[in-house]
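Researcher: I'd like a structural prediction for the single chain below. Treat it as a standalone chain; there are no partners to consider.
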Amino acid sequence: MELKNKPHAKGTRQLFNNPVLERLTRTHISIPLILFGTIATGLIVYGLDKGYINAINTPLLFVGGLLSFTLVEYIMHRFVFHLAPKNERQEKFAYTVHGVHHDYPKDKDRLAMPPLLSILLSTGFFFLFKLMMGNLAFAFLPGFVMGYASYLWVHYMVHAFQPPKNFFKVLWIHHGIHHYKDPENAFGVSSPFWDVIFGTMPKKR
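Model: Treating it as a single chain, here is the predicted structure.
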């Protein structure tokens, strides 16, 4: 999706005339954070109780899942959310899932994926990881979804709060450049690591 530098509107925008669909596009940030924190904890406790995972491999798998999410985050943001639409239907889809966020970046109710959709996606990832690594998925998926929760929190803080006076400020600057200066670069939100690896760091001016 090609996004031009333009003034950003304050407030919000209605996407659907149907009130139920419109409500589903809005999410308070606390809901997914609590939801995925609970899911991650429950999976680890269940996996340990059943002997699927243990105290040695769980931390390694958890960190592996968390780091894996940062790559998925980058790929989704760059190649799905910013995919150039080829027809009107694709353009509407692109605007609904991400374009509206670029037009209204301060809309706090649209800084997270609707919980119903994120649960469906995380369920799909669970079965994918289960197929790939068996019961080790009970430690890998919690890291993956907590990577998503961490991304959500960083994304929310960047758009809702003033930048802090510590090392986290680099995330504010990086994502701010993506929104306000260079939307075709700086796709990493929770970390600029993959932008460095794939050469999409913002150009110095």
